[in-house]
Amino acid sequence: MARNNHYWVPAYKDGQFNIDLVELEALLNKLEGQTNYLFLNYPSNPTGTTLNKAELTAIADICRKHGCYVVSDEIYCEQNFTDEGHTSMAEIYPEKTVISNGISKWLGAGGWRIGFMIVPREMSAVVDAMNMYNSEINSGVSSPIQWATIKGFEDTPEMTEYFANSKAILKTISGIFRRNLVDAGIASTTTGDLGSYYVLMDFTN
Ligand SMILES: Cc1ncc(COP(=O)(O)O)c(C=O)c1O
User: Fold this and answer.
1) pTM for the full model?
2) Domain boundaries, the chain
3) Which residues are CB-contacts of 16 (< 8 A; sequence separation ≥ 6)?
4) By alpha-carbon position, which residue is closest to atom 12 of ligand 1?
5) What does the pLDDT look like over 84-138, one tens digit per residue?
6) Does domain 13-183 have CATH number 3.40.640.10?
7) Using a 6 Å CB cutoff, which residues line ligand 1?
8) SS3 label, residue 36
9) In angstroms, what is the span from residue 152 Cα to ligand 1's centroid?
């Protein structure tokens, strides 16, 4: 991103803060011929919304048409409270999506300072650049943290139970918090408990 232009794609309150597809298409038309990256984050900090499969497909269709890459921050992937659950942009648009993630949110390990990116094979130059940058700027993650992280990725009954329990707790707290805000006359700008653990408050009235 350094020394490159960046642009905001509007995401309106009435559209649940999902990005406006007409505006996205207009922007990519304007930037035609350049290499473009769309940065997404869902479930979202700070709106508490998320994107479903249909919405992701619509975004991917526009990006594919314009050759636009996507960097998708899915750090709250296990905090999706919808029945549909989380779909990764990499499932829909694998050829040009980079996943950005870390263990602090979905694994409840804030402060453990480990993050990772998943990059499509055809974008291996990105991995080389990141390795070069990280080898000069960051030091290695301590080995106990690395071993603990491996446990988090294991498909075991313990992990399944942990994810189900933390999701249930966060969804309950978020629902109570939201209801109390509404009772106090402060409408929350998101209408449902969709994901992450944020409520964006609306003080318009
Ligand atoms: C959307 C999003 N991405 C990434 C991060 C970074 O998390 P960490 O620095 O704990 O790995 C945060 C933290 O608040 C976040 O909200």
Assistant:
1) 0.92
2) 13-183
3) 47, 49, 190, 191, 194
4) 75
5) 999 999 999 999 999 999 999 988 888 888 999 999 998 899 899 888 888 888 7
6) yes
7) 41, 45, 73, 75, 102, 104, 110, 115
8) coil
9) 17
